[in-house]
């Protein structure tokens, strides 16, 4: 895990150069995208409506956001600002040139997020850390709190939810993966069930961590 964090920290210094996808010459491409994920990206490009996308602190977790802009998707990423103001400013400077819109989790964020969805944007968010006031979920057999923002937005806008992750490969490259839209649980009245949806997302992330535990941000205090 510390090896991955060290690499991630170094990669921030050249974030604008990380994205290097060469569809015509996969051998020289730093980003590997299999045909099934590429087909899902193509569908997103022609979707024309709001989409929600979840991720986790795995490998280099900025890569899905880089991909959204590189593929011309209208996107907005929700992020929590670091506690250190100088670090927060530097990370924002690095991100804003290579990503879509960025929405920090502070007063007024909900209004910006809803406006972005009304414009047909894709909203991305990392949902693998503890959330004060979140809904209950089971993660690796233990109860935890999960930020329910994506579930609530899906319920309000009745829009699809997909997962995106990067996997660090042994040769210094990354494989980008995008899931199919999840089959979202619904209440008896036909509306999306927020808590059940967040549990389903949490199970997907759990499976990702099982596949590559050394690439997950383990030192976060997930269970409280």
Give a short synopsis of this structure.
With 224 residues, the chain is α/β, with parallel strands linked by helices. Helix content is 37%, strand content 20%.
Helix-strand string: HHEHEHEHEHEEEHEEH
**How many strand segments?**
9
Query: Which outline best applies?
Result: globular
Q: What are the segments in which pLDDT stays under 50 over at least 5 consecutive residues?
A: none
Strand content: 15-25%
Described by its quaternary structure, the protein is single chain
Lateral arrangement of strands in the main beta sheet: 1-9-8-2-5-3-4
C-alpha-based Rg, rounded: 17 Å
Count of the separate structural domains: 1
In whole angstroms, the N-to-C terminal distance is 21 Å
SS-derived structural category = alpha/beta
Our count of helices gives 8
Helix content: 25-40%
Mean pLDDT: 90
How would you characterize the largest beta sheet? 7 strands, mixed
